Amino acid sequence: MIALYRLHKGNMLAAILIAITAFGFASLASASSSIVYAAKAKPDAVPSRVVADLSTSTISITTSFHGTDLLLFGAIDGQDGDDLIVVVSGPPLDIAQRRKANYAGIWVNVETNIWQQAPSFYQILSTRPLAKIAQPQTYEKLGIGSQNINLKIVAKSPVTGEKPPQAIDFIGALQSNMAASKLWPQSNEPINLTRNALFRTEVKLPANVLSGTYDVRILQFRQGQAIGEDRTTLRIEKGEMSALIYNFAHDYSALYGIFAILFAVASGWLAAVAFRRG
Fold first, then answer.
1. Among 84-88, 145-149, 183-187, 252-256, which stretch is predicted with the lowest mean pLDDT?
2. At what angle do helices 253-274 and 240-251 cross, to 10 degrees?
3. Are residue 27 and residue 116 in the same domain, yes or no?
4. Range of the domain at 160
5. Does 101 share its domain with 21?
6. How many structural domains compose the chain?
7. Rounded to the nearest 5°, which phi and psi values hold at 72?
8. Does one domain contain both 16 and 93?
9. What is the pLDDT of residues 218-246, one digit of tens each?
10. What pTM value is reported for the model?
11. Alpha-carbon distance 14 to 167, whole Å?
């Protein structure tokens, strides 16, 4: 009986070892098939890479600053038919938008709305017209275009009972005003793409750009879908005397106001003395 138990026990151990071994081979085969499947699916699933940079990362605004052109360049892992879109966005600020009406021959402001945290500069560059690269729904999802960046508008002096302003009703006027100031150019600058690998373009900054950090997005599109993205930043700072005056005006606003009044009075008095008739 003891021998039979030992034999039975040995058979059980052997059976367990065989089962474990079989399970291991099955798992290995399953894993191998999964690896083969993943290897087959990998070429279609791996996104292309985008690498980009600017010719300079810092710009100093001095008294002689009249705007500048920057070179944006980089490389992509591309194919025939791929496109690139570059979005340059400036530091946010609140923008006042006023509506005027004619009363008795005099134009007066009848409504003032505030765009909250709108980009002070907004420019799009692309290899082709945007309508030929992707559908409007894609741009809305990716936040490309001033109409797709969730701008908020509020009344400066809300009136109880009045309907609050809607962004869709005023976005066209904002785009026109900012384009007239050369801060939201509506014409897309071209991007030169060579052999589906190297690209370059120019970012044109007008003289009235604000200081701060500018965000630059570079997106690669294939068959209407974004497959790769890179980001870089640009820093614009005030320099020389303009920076000193700017910092003094913001850090010591009261003293700056007093100094400005005294300077205006002194300038007027000196002008009166200089041109006083004998």
1. 252-256
2. 120
3. no
4. 50-241
5. no
6. 2
7. -105, 125
8. no
9. 999 999 999 999 999 999 988 766 667 76
10. 0.70
11. 76
